[in-house]
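Need a sequence for this fold. Nothing fancy.
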C-alpha cells in the first residue's frame, strides 16, 4: 500500500545562497542559486530594486558624499555671543553633496522642471515612465479623461542627441493652462527626470521634475588630481579614497598631493613653509628698542569653518641701538597662484570710498590689469581702512572687474587702491617686544592677506610694542602637509594616510593640532608582514584601528594623539583584496579578502561573513567558491583589487561589486560578467545580482544608493560614467533597470526528503503570495529541474497574479471571477524523480514576484532501495 502524500512546506525561512554545501546536504532553507532576488522585511522572496539613470557621464575616479554644514559667519557668531537675535533656520544647516572625481571635482546639481496647472478640471495629471512597447520613456499629460500629450523622451543613455528637459518643458508649456519652467542645466536628458505616476496637478499641486547634471567645483590653479585620469587604465589603478574631518572632505589617490574640499574650493591640504627677510627703514619710526626678531607663518581659514596655521620662519631684524626710533620692512613670500593652494585673490583697482552699501561693489583686477580669481561664495579678507581692522566678507557676486561684498549691517567699508583681497588666506607677522638679549616671546603684528599674483610682498611694521596682539605659540611639532597615499581614513579626529607608492608598508597619521599637519620626523610606523606584503587598506573598528595588507593585518590601539600606541600583528593568513570594500556595519568592519568576504570586530580574529551551514569550524563563507577562480580565464576573471562595496542602511545590506573587465584599445572597463553579491545581514543571507556596475564608485545619500558605471559606449566611442540611483517609491515601477527588464531567478534546494536515491512522485505545487506592492500584477513562471541536473526537463508553468481579488478590480477593467485568495495551485505531473528543484522566474518590465511560501506535495510509493 502506498504511503500517504507528503507535504514539503517552505514558509519564510529563506536564507539565500550556500555555495559551500553540496546539493545533497545543503539545508532546505538555502537556495542553490539566485539572480536579482532579495527578501522583503517579512522574509518573502522578491526582485531586487531597479535603478534609473539620473545624470550623464562625468568623473570615473571615485564617487563621494560630503556632509556639508554651512558654518556661522564671524558676524553671526558675534551676534550669538552678544545675544542678538539670529535666524537659526538660515545657518549651520547640513546639506549633503554628491561628488565625483575626474582630474577635478564635480558636484551634482539639480536640473529642475517646475510644472503647474492653472485650469479648473479637478484631475489634470502628469506621468513619466518607461513604455515597454515603445521602448522609450514617455511623458503623458491628461486633463479629465482626455490625453493632451504623449511625448517621447527617448532613453537618455547612449544617445547622440537626447531629448532634453528644455524640450520637455516646451512641450508641456504649449498646452493650455500648463506651464513648465527649467532651472539648472537645460541640456540634461529628460529621461533622467525620475518616475512619476499620475501626479494630479489640480489645486495648485505643482510638481518639480528633477534630473541632475555635474557642475565643476572651483579648483585652485595648479591643483586637481590628474593622476587619477592618466593612470585610469593601469593594472594597479584604484579609485580615490576619502575621509571627512571637521567639515572638510579630504581626497587622495596616491599619485597627487592630498586634496581638500571645503564646500567652496578644491585645493591642496596643508600649507607650505614660508620665508621672510626684514630690513630697517632708514626713516624715523615708532618702534623703540633692541634685538627685534620677526616670525611669519601662513594661515588658511577655510569655508568649512577651520583655521589652520602652518610652519613658521623667523629672522633677526637687526639691532636698533640708535637714538632715532625706527620701523621695519618685512618681506614675505606669498603663496602664488598656480601652486595648488587656495589662492583666490583680487587687487583693488582704485580706492573704494567709505560706504554703507549692501552689497559693497569693489572694482578689482589682478594688479596688472588682468582678471581677479575670486568666485561667488569666497570669503574676502582685506584691510578696512575705515575701521582700521582686517575684516571678512562673503563675496555674493562677481564680474570680470568687480566683486560684491555682503554687508548686511551696512558697515562703513573703505579699501585703498592696490589693497590685496584674499580668499581668507593670510600671512601672520609676529614680532617680539624690545629685549636686552634673545627674546623668547613673539606677539602678533598683523595677519595680512596673501597676494597670489606676486612672489613677495612687503609689510611695513611700524607698530608700537604696546600695541602688539596675541602671543605666538610655536607648534610643538612639524606641520608639513600630508604625504601622498592611496588610502585615507579618520580615527579619533586624526587623518590617516597609507598606500604611499614609495613606502607601501608605512602608515602616517596627523598631529593632534590638526588633520592637515603631518610631522615629517614622527607620526608614522612601518607595518610588518610576510615578504611582498603591502598595505591594501585602512579602517577604524571601534576602539582599534586596522591596517590591512595583502595577506595579513595589524591593529593599532592606545592614545594616538599622545603617540602612546600599541601595534599588534594579528594574522598572517587573512589579508585584504580592496580598500574600497571596507565598510562599517553595526559595529563590525565588513571587507573582502582574497578568499572571500570577512568581518572584524574590535581586533578579534576575522570571521567569514555568512558562515556555511556545513562548516563546523566556521572557516568559510557560503559564497567563498565564487572567489576560487582556478580555471577561470579572460573576461570572466574578477579583478578583486577593484572590488567595491557600499552599505545600504535602509535596505540593511552590504553590497559587494566584483568587476570582470574587458579592454577596448587602452580602455579597461567593467563588462557584463560583473556581479554584485548582496549580503542581507538581518537574515544572514547572500544573494547574487547582475547588470549593476559600481566601477566608478557607489555611495548612500539620503537613504538611497547612487552609483556610477565604468562602461564602454560604442555610441560615445569612449568610457562612460553615467550616474544611476536605485528606486525607492514602493511601486511596481521600482522593478526595472532604467529601460531594461530585471531578470529574476530563484532556485530552491533540491527536494529529496533525505532519500536522494529513492524515486518519488511529485504531485502538486502551491504558491502563496500574500504581500502587496502597489500596482503590481506579476506573472510568476516556474520550472521543475530533476535529479540534480541543471535544466533537465521537468514540468513548467506560470502562476498569474494579474487580478486584484474578488470585488477589488474596477468594473470593466478586470475579468469576472477575480480570485479572493492570495495563492495558486498547479499540478506537477505527477513527476517521477529522485530529487526535484523548483526554479522561480520573472523577467517582466515593472513587475516583481512576491513569493511568500510554497508547498510541494509528493508521494513515496517505492521501497527505499538504491536505484
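Here you go.
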Amino acid at each position: 500500500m502506498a504511503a500517504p502524500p507528503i507535504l514539503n512546506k517552505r514558509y519564510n525561512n529563506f536564507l539565500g545562497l550556500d555555495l559551500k554545501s553540496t546539493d545533497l546536504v545543503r539545508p532546505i532553507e538555502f537556495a542553490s542559486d539566485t539572480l536579482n532576488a532579495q527578501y522583503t522585511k517579512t522574509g518573502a522572496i522578491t526582485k531586487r530594486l531597479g535603478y534609473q539613470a539620473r545624470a550623464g557621464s562625468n568623473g570615473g575616479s571615485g564617487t563621494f558624499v560630503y556632509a556639508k554644514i554651512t558654518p556661522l559667519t564671524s558676524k553671526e557668531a558675534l551676534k550669538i555671543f552678544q545675544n542678538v537675535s539670529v535666524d537659526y533656520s538660515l545657518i549651520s544647516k547640513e546639506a549633503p553633496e554628491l561628488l565625483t572625481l575626474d582630474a577635478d571635482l564635480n558636484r551634482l546639481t539639480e536640473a529642475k522642471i517646475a510644472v503647474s496647472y492653472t485650469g479648473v478640471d479637478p484631475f489634470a495629471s502628469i506621468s513619466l515612465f518607461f513604455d515597454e512597447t515603445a521602448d522609450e520613456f514617455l511623458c503623458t499629460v491628461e486633463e479629465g479623461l482626455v490625453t493632451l500629450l504623449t511625448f517621447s523622451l527617448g532613453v537618455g543613455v547612449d544617445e547622440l542627441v537626447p531629448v532634453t528637459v528644455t524640450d520637455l518643458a516646451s512641450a508641456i508649456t504649449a498646452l493650455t493652462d500648463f506651464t513648465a519652467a527649467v532651472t539648472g542645466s537645460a541640456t540634461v536628458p529628460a529621461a533622467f527626470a525620475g518616475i512619476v505616476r499620475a501626479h494630479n496637478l489640480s489645486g495648485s499641486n505643482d510638481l518639480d521634475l528633477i534630473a541632475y547634471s555635474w557642475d565643476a567645483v572651483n579648483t585652485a590653479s595648479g591643483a586637481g588630481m590628474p593622476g587619477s585620469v592618466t593612470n585610469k587604465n593601469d593594472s594597479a589603478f584604484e579609485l580615490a579614497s576619502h575621509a571627512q574631518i571637521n567639515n572638510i572632505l579630504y581626497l587622495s589617490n596616491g599619485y597627487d598631493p592630498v586634496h581638500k574640499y571645503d564646500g567652496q574650493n578644491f585645493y591642496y591640504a596643508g600649507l607650505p613653509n614660508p620665508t621672510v627677510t626684514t630690513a630697517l627703514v632708514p626713516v624715523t619710526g615708532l618702534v623703540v628698542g633692541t634685538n627685534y626678531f620677526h616670525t611669519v607663518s601662513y594661515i588658511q581659514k577655510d569655508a568649512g569653518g577651520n583655521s589652520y596655521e602652518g610652519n613658521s620662519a623667523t629672522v633677526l631684524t637687526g639691532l636698533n641701538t640708535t637714538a632715532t626710533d625706527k620701523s621695519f620692512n618685512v618681506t614675505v613670500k606669498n603663496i602664488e597662484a598656480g601652486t595648488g593652494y587656495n589662492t583666490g585673490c583680487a587687487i583693488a583697482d582704485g580706492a573704494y570710498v567709505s560706504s554703507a552699501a549692501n552689497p559693497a561693489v569693489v572694482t578689482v583686477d589682478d594688479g596688472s590689469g588682468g582678471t581677479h580669481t575670486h568666485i561667488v561664495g569666497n570669503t574676502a579678507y582685506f584691510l578696512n581702512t575705515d575701521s582700521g581692522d582686517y575684516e571678512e566678507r562673503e563675496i555674493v557676486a562677481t564680474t570680470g572687474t568687480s566683486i560684491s561684498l555682503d554687508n548686511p549691517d551696512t558697515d562703513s567699508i573703505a579699501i585703498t587702491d592696490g589693497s590685496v583681497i584674499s580668499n581668507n588666506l593670510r600671512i601672520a607677522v609676529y614680532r617680539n617686544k624690545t629685549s636686552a638679549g634673545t627674546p623668547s616671546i613673539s606677539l602678533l603684528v598683523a595677519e595680512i592677506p596673501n597676494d597670489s599674483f606676486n612672489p613677495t610682498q612687503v609689510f611695513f611694521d611700524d607698530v608700537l610694542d604696546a600695541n602688539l596682539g596675541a602671543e605666538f605659540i610655536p607648534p610643538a611639532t612639524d606641520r608639513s602637509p600630508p604625504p601622498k597615499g592611496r588610502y585615507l581614513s579618520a580615527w579619533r579626529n586624526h587623518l590617516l594616510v597609507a598606500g604611499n607608492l614609495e613606502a607601501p608598508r608605512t602608515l602616517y597619521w596627523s598631529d593632534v593640532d590638526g588633520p592637515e599637519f603631518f610631522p615629517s620626523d614622527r607620526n608614522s610606523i612601518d607595518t610588518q608582514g610576510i615578504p611582498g606584503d603591502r598595505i591594501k587598506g585602512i579602517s577604524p573598528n571601534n576602539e582599534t584601528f586596522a591596517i590591512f595588507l595583502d595577506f595579513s593585518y595589524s591593529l593599532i590601539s592606545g592614545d594616538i594623539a599622545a603617540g602612546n600606541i600599541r601595534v599588534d600583528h594579528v594574522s598572517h593568513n587573512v589579508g585584504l583584496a580592496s580598500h574600497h570594500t571596507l565598510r562599517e556595519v553595526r559595529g563590525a568592519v565588513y571587507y573582502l579578502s582574497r578568499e572571500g568576504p570577512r568581518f572584524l570586530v574590535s581586533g578579534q580574529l576575522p570571521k567569514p561573513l555568512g558562515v556555511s551551514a556545513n562548516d563546523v569550524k566556521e572557516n568559510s563563507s557560503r559564497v567563498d567558491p565564487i572567489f576560487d577562480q582556478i580555471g577561470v580565464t579572460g573576461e570572466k576573471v574578477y579583478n578583486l583589487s577593484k572590488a567595491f562595496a557600499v552599505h545600504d542602511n535602509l535596505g540593511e545590506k552590504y553590497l559587494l561589486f566584483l568587476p570582470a573587465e574587458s579592454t577596448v584599445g587602452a580602455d579597461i572597463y567593467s563588462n557584463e560578467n560583473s556581479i554584485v553579491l548582496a549580503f542581507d545581514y538581518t537574515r544572514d543571507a547572500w544573494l547574487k545580482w547582475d547588470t549593476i556596475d559600481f566601477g566608478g564608485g557607489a555611495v548612500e545619500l539620503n537613504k538611497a544608493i547612487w552609483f556610477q558605471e565604468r562602461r564602454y559606449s560604442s555610441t560615445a566611442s569612449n568610457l562612460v560614467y553615467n550616474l544611476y540611483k536605485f528606486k525607492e517609491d514602493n511601486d511596481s515601477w521600482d522593478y526595472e533597470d532604467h529601460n531594461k527588464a530585471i531578470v529574476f531567478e530563484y532556485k530552491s534546494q533540491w527536494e529529496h526528503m533525505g532519500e536522494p536515491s529513492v524515486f518519488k512522485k511529485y504531485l502538486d505545487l502551491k504558491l502563496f503570495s500574500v504581500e502587496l506592492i502597489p500596482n503590481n500584477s506579476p506573472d510568476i513562471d516556474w520550472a521543475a529541474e530533476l535529479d540534480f541536473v541543471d535544466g533537465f526537463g521537468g514540468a513548467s508553468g506560470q502562476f498569474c497574479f494579474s487580478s486584484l481579488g474578488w470585488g477589488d478590480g474596477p468594473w470593466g477593467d478586470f475579468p469576472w471571477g477575480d480570485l479572493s485568495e492570495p495563492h495558486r495551485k498547479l499540478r506537477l505531473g505527477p513527476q517521477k524523480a529522485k530529487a526535484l528543484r523548483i526554479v522561480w522566474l520573472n523577467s517582466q518590465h515593472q513587475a516583481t514576484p512576491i513569493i511568500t511560501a510554497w508547498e510541494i506535495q509528493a508521494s513515496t510509493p517505492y521501497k527505499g532501495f538504491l536505484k
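For context: The chain is about 0% helix and 45% strand.
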